[in-house]
């Protein structure tokens, strides 16, 4: 099975040269390419060749010994760190490259922390050991100090054994440690083996390859256990610009997938490609641990988990600078925006957005090099000449204090109320969501819906309108209505609850920070320290070595991001600075930022804090500061206060609007109430009957009026995908987009419902979606149902017909022959897909004739 190794490094550590040597020694390429010659195997983009840096992650497939392996090359420049972090999701192991002349750099530490976060076993390869100032002993000490103490020289078996008691016992008994023991220590990250060499001189590369192959061999049994009937995959990269097809780069983690299979998201796989450099081979099937590019899916996205895999959590490294895209030709920004949105598919962190108030396109970027690369890409691949105008750093906000937010949404025939406790978290915690409410108070499906709405949107604060972060949301209450609540109602209630809480508690502005390391001649360090203090930065005492002082610390990105120019000027080119993103923290000039933003939360119509209550049959908008006085569910403070009183034991009455009885229970109750004397003779004696006159009953006969015969309620059940395939117009849409075809069918059925007296239910297969349960929702004036795992649409329709055939007048639309036989046997009427299409078209024609509507 294929084992994927990623290669990571600080820029200029020799990563591409090492990749070339690995592939050359493994006989995957015929000759060694060089970065400075522009012929490296994995630097396939023209800008990579011209600049001599890696911009995009790319795979190369090779064999060594009995093992199949993939080498995933990643960018080393900090401006493309998001591309590197996305690639980590596809790795089984990593090679962290360190320059023997420079030692551990700030970006090296960032990469190492990411590898630890993703729990990726890692080899450390120290490159450029052929240089004069590269000392093995001092480098090992530097690595242990800066990265981790369990980074050990691979040649020192005793040092390896000392990281485990069992390994030490084995070493003392046998005088060595087995490959299996080394593999166990490596996989569990109890050791980070250090190897030394020179990629340019091809020294130490064979030893590295041997260790990579050994680890791949030792992991084969574990990897084979992932061969399963289940399917799981991780989408780590999307490529679409400049390609003949949209490529979904995927790591298969469990099971397999074949050409023409349908992904769990409903999209079909047309091709499976195995890329190596710029070339690819088409295969019919991809198995667990393969790295492949899928052709066909249009709705996949980077970070998506397929099948049993969950979506990847948010990236740790994100852009902190926002730019405006300014056009240098006659392009109209609004017209170009849809094309530029394609950039988001490849790199979601760019967050290309349209600012309607300013008629501008905004984009988030990491730095100057990335802006230069994107400028060229947009011109080459989208034919737009642009420049990027810096707008400043990207601020965020967090809540100032704990608060319970309340949102109520109750226009006529709608109902939802949500109570959400919001608490501030430590910097870097992000958004957390949990529920602390009984299902007796709020049904589980509504709780899950509130959680979905909390996470689905980037909510903004009330200070400068920036995205919120570092907040814990806890669902503590809510209410639904059995008849009037729809899915969209809780979206409104949730959004308004969050906004109401933010308005009540207030928010604090956060700004991005950089870790910095500055090296200057020692006689200039005082000037640097003064500058950092003026930037509101902090630092440790400087270290001095051979007349060079190194200062490390932390400062706001807004003040230090352009310090490189000033540093180069007063040091006459002798000073250097490295900046590494270090998360968000309290803004050093909050009042100034708030004033400059000009943001007024009361005028933000897209993020209302008010709630909507029903008053005298119409919706009544209540301002945020009055919502808690009018809400229907008591707030936590009121609940806690009421618990201080002694409760009088009473029989519990269920009056919650989201509590309801099953129809069978209702039938049973009614039967007991109205037929309690069924089978018994009425007592003889005086009987009042229906009138006022008392009369004597001398017989057992009691007259009963005949029951009124009511027409049965009519239902139309449609086998959704069956009808889509039978309808030529919808089939054309299906070939392009599944969701589009499904949406168009629902629109047609909605129009049909308006022209008939049917209750329309469209049933769609979801039987291949792992763990899926039956879900039903309203679409305009009709209903749609997605079946459970292992249940097809026809099975659902057959069951519905069998259970409700006597109660309702049911008609089914399908062309499935076997289903037709079963449905007729259950007493339901049947319309073939072809007949139904004709009827819909006939109804539409009648409507057009009635109102003299002419078709274009």
From the structure above, extract its key features.
856 residues; 7-stranded mixed beta sheet; 6-stranded antiparallel beta sheet; 28 helices; 32% helix
- Give the proportion of residues in helices: 25-40%
Number of strands: 39
Structural class: alpha/beta
Outline the low-pLDDT stretches.
645-667, 673-706
Instruction: Name the beta content range.
Output: 25-35%
Taking the sheet with the most strands, its summary is: 7 strands, mixed
User: How are strands sequenced across the largest beta sheet?
Assistant: 2-3-1-4-5-7-6
Mean pLDDT: 86
Shape: globular
Distance between the termini: 58 Å
Number of helices: 28
User: What is the radius of gyration?
Assistant: 34 Å
Describe it for me?
About 7% of the residues have low confidence. A hairpin with a 7-residue loop joins strand 32 and strand 33. The protein contains 28 helices and 39 strands. Helix 1 packs across helix 9 and helix 14 crosses helix 15. It starts with a strand and ends in a 6-residue tail after the last helix. It is an alpha/beta fold and 856 residues long. The strands form 9 sheets. Strands 2-3-1-4-5-7-6 form a 7-stranded mixed β-sheet, sandwiched between helices.
Topology:
Elements: E1 3-9, H1 15-25, H2 46-51, E2 58-64, E3 67-73, H3 81-88, E4 93-99, H4 106-117, E5 122-127, H5 136-146, E6 151-153, H6 157-161, H7 165-174, H8 179-187, E7 192-196, H9 205-218, H10 220-224, E8 232-239, E9 247-254, E10 256-258, E11 271-276, E12 279-283, E13 285-287, E14 291-295, E15 305-307, E16 321-327, H11 333-340, H12 342-346, E17 353-355, E18 360-365, H13 368-382, E19 386-393, E20 396-399, E21 403-409, E22 416-424, E23 431-435, H14 444-456, E24 471-479, H15 487-505, E25 507-521, H16 525-534, E26 538-539, E27 543-545, E28 548-556, H17 557-560, H18 563-570, E29 576-586, H19 590-597, E30 611-615, E31 618-622, H20 627-630, H21 636-642, H22 663-674, E32 685-687, E33 695-697, E34 714-719, H23 720-726, H24 728-734, H25 738-755, E35 759-764, E36 775-779, E37 782-786, H26 793-804, E38 809-813, H27 817-825, E39 829-831, H28 833-850
Parallel strand pairs: 1-3, 1-4, 4-5, 5-7, 6-7, 23-24, 34-35, 34-38, 35-37, 38-39
Antiparallel strand pairs: 2-3, 8-9, 8-15, 9-14, 10-13, 11-12, 11-14, 16-18, 16-19, 17-18, 20-25, 21-22, 22-24, 25-28, 25-29, 26-28, 27-28, 30-31, 32-33, 36-37
Helix pairs in contact: 1-9, 14-15, 24-25
